[in-house]
Amino acid sequence: MSKKVLISDPTLRDGNHAIAHKLTPEQVAKYAKAAEAAKVPIVEVGHGNGIGASSFQVGLAVAADYDLLKAARDNLSDSKLGIHSIPGFSTIKRDIQNAIDVGVDVFRIACHCTEADITEKHIGYLREKGKTVHGVLMMSHMASPEVLAEEAAKMELYGAEAVVFMDSAGAYLPQDVSERVAKLVSNLRIPVGFHGHNNLGMAVANTVAAVESGASIVDGTVRGFGAGAGNTQLEVLVAVLEKLGYDTGIDLYRILDAADLAEKEFIPVVPFVSSTSVVSGLSGVFSGFIKHVNRVALEFGVDPRDVFFELGKRKAVAGQEDMIVEVAVALSRKK
Amino acid sequence: MSKKVLISDPTLRDGNHAIAHKLTPEQVAKYAKAAEAAKVPIVEVGHGNGIGASSFQVGLAVAADYDLLKAARDNLSDSKLGIHSIPGFSTIKRDIQNAIDVGVDVFRIACHCTEADITEKHIGYLREKGKTVHGVLMMSHMASPEVLAEEAAKMELYGAEAVVFMDSAGAYLPQDVSERVAKLVSNLRIPVGFHGHNNLGMAVANTVAAVESGASIVDGTVRGFGAGAGNTQLEVLVAVLEKLGYDTGIDLYRILDAADLAEKEFIPVVPFVSSTSVVSGLSGVFSGFIKHVNRVALEFGVDPRDVFFELGKRKAVAGQEDMIVEVAVALSRKK
């Protein structure tokens, strides 16, 4: 009997990053129908940064969370409906309750890789309500495998029924993923998951490495639709896992159809590895910094790529855009 | 001391497939200059199917081989000028002599993976002239590792100074590549090379696997510019090999610049893994069949993907387009 792998598909959530959160309920409905036909186990829906995140700062969504979730809910029956939720962007009273009301099945409570503490209340609340909850550690390359395992253990303690770690900057090579999966699997009693990005062209290979090292939940989006260089390409992952003898439960022809539909309906440009993506992956810095970095680098007469690598050394994360000027000044003085 | 890897860049040859062989001498000159600045060791130029291949059957090139090669030659000094040449498409008298006259440095003599015999005269002729010659085995997934090693040994016997095997349909996973490289390395005295395609999203991972298994020559094109799902993406490969401690001699920033220039000058759409690419990679059938397959499948009321998989079982190769109708008829009878 072949080993089972649970696939979660955040096309309608991570993909929202690629189009400035402009997915409409109509598009969500169409794709959800196609994903249901392909027997995708979990369909994740919402603003790129999760429910409650729509704002001037990280991007205003075209549609309200409720309308997007409702459009998916009405078209999913065997496939489960999932959300991504970062406490702070989301609140229990407003957003989590809203998601419960609309009938979400799988709640993914996410945070920066070293801040599991902020997920405790949300995970606890949802578990009390009898909901399925997974913990998510983002930008995981910024923590050592040991720290990552400690943070994951906290989430398990809070009641998470699985922990997924994300390669948000696409910084890993397969051996990096294997090492972390092995560490988490040996430290936790609950299933371990992996979510990849393609900055170094390794998203599919990294995801396969995760599965081969013991991860039992992996994420993928059709055509890799997602932030920056994109995610692990779901229809390719399904093909490769099938070729390797794993059982994803997903129908290959139908997921190829779903990918074709998504491309036609809401993917204006299929994600690819741009030069910026490579530098982002190598430096481990969020590619969303690129516009600021280019502007500041030009102003101070330094190479934007040097700025990225220096930001990487200083472990800059989203929200620390002010560090860009600091780095550019320092680099221009060195010259 | 880090291990050296020799990179050959067929952006201006395999990329020609993606734009129906429409590269102009001006575009070639611009890219060659950028590749020279990036210290790319070998820049391969020409019609997608190699010198002498321009024809109604496989596609008429916009520019003559001589003009493309001359444009590159005039802009390369430290970087070497390479060609791809398939005996039959090319003749010694006309095309090989032409390439010698224009000053080509590296001659790659290529054939289907089981037909090394047809390269004997061309390899011998060039070696007599004192030229650098590599043998190339295309569609290598159609031969067993043992047969591939035998064919490679023939090329070595004819005088080839390296043998490169190509994953023309993008059908391999890393372990497939490792197995073949190990087999070739242990059977030959000359260096072994690998040329990947991205149908299963594995081109970079496969190429890294080749290097880690002992290949010392690998191919990559900027933005993966090439046939179907595209090639191993060169600027990503350089970044990943550097991260792993290999020495490619290529300047990372300058190859990123070359990639940006190529995208601007002659890449209308960056290659991506389409649904057809996945089916092509899984079935091991050349993706160029897609138009015929779609037409015939519609006519006989069968699924074009079933046609691909059946063609794969029958080991169809380019030139055997008549087999498509045969397969469609057989499938429609089964229904």
Question: Short description, anyone?
Answer:
Two copies of one chain form a homodimer. The first copy, chain A, has 335 residues and is α/β, with parallel strands linked by helices. Chain A has helices at residues 11-18, 25-37, 65-73, 92-102, 120-128, 145-158, 174-187, 203-212, 234-243, 252-266, 275-283, 290-300, 304-313, 323-334, and strands at 6-10, 42-45, 80-85, 106-112, 132-138, 163-166, 192-195, 217-219.
Could you tell me the mean pLDDT of chain A?
96
CATH class of the largest domain in chain A: Alpha Beta
Helix content of chain A: 40-55%
Strand coverage percent of chain A? 5-15%
Radius of gyration of chain A: 19 Å
Major sheet of chain A: order of its strands? 1-2-3-4-5-6-7-8
Largest sheet of chain A: 8 strands, parallel, barrel
Number of strands of chain A: 8
The backbone outline of chain A, from C-alpha atoms, is globular
Could you say how many structural domains of chain A there are in total? 2
Number of helices of chain A: 14
- The computed structural class of chain A is alpha/beta
- Name the largest protein-protein interface in this structure: A-B, 35 and 35 residues
Low-confidence blocks of residues of chain A: none
Task: Label the CATH architecture of the largest domain in chain A.
Answer: Alpha-Beta Barrel
Order of helices and strands of chain A: EHHEHEHEHEHEHEHEHHHHHH
Here the CATH topology of the largest domain in chain A equals TIM Barrel
